[in-house]
Write a structure and sequence with these properties.
By secondary structure, the chain is of the alpha+beta class. The chain has one domain: GMP Synthetase, Chain A, domain 3, CATH 3.30.300. The chain has five helices and three strands. A three-stranded mixed sheet has the order 1-2-3, with helices on one face.
């Protein structure tokens, strides 16, 4: 099975959907933030391992605590995943912090700051365009 095959893509999305539901509804660890997103899941072609990218709304401390809580509950999450997704092998899950959303928000703020620093165009230019 090739890395980018249709089958592997479907498995990735199904495992991502199942992990999101399991973490939201089943995991009761207080360290796991309720504003958690499973942004991506990459399952190895042999179905033995999976990388789950986790994003949390908040600071880095919340993200670190959430990852720690998920690592402690990994066995339980894996058993729930085995019950909900029918795969030949249930993958060993590695939770990886995903900071891409926070990076995007920071970049948007910087762009807004630069745009606010640029003086407005004169009214004459706006009249010519219309």
């Amino acid at each position: 099975m090739r890395k980018n095959s249709i089958k592997n893509t479907r498995i990735n999305s199904e495992v991502q959907r199942a992990l999101s539901t399991i973490i939201r509804e089943e995991v009761k660890d207080p360290r796991v933030d309720p504003l958690l997103s499973v942004t991506d899941v990459v399952v190895a072609p042999d179905l033995k391992t999976a990388k789950a990218y986790i994003s949390v709304l908040g600071d880095a401390e919340k993200l670190a605590a959430t990852i720690e809580g998920l690592k402690k509950a990994e066995g339980y999450i894996r058993s729930c995943l085995a019950k909900s997704v029918n795969l030949r092998n249930t993958p060993q899950i590695t939770f990886i912090p995903d900071t891409s959303i926070a990076y995007g928000v920071a970049m948007t703020k910087k762009i807004d700051e630069v745009a606010a620093a640029i003086p407005d165009r004169p009214e004459e230019d706006e009249d010519e365009e219309a």
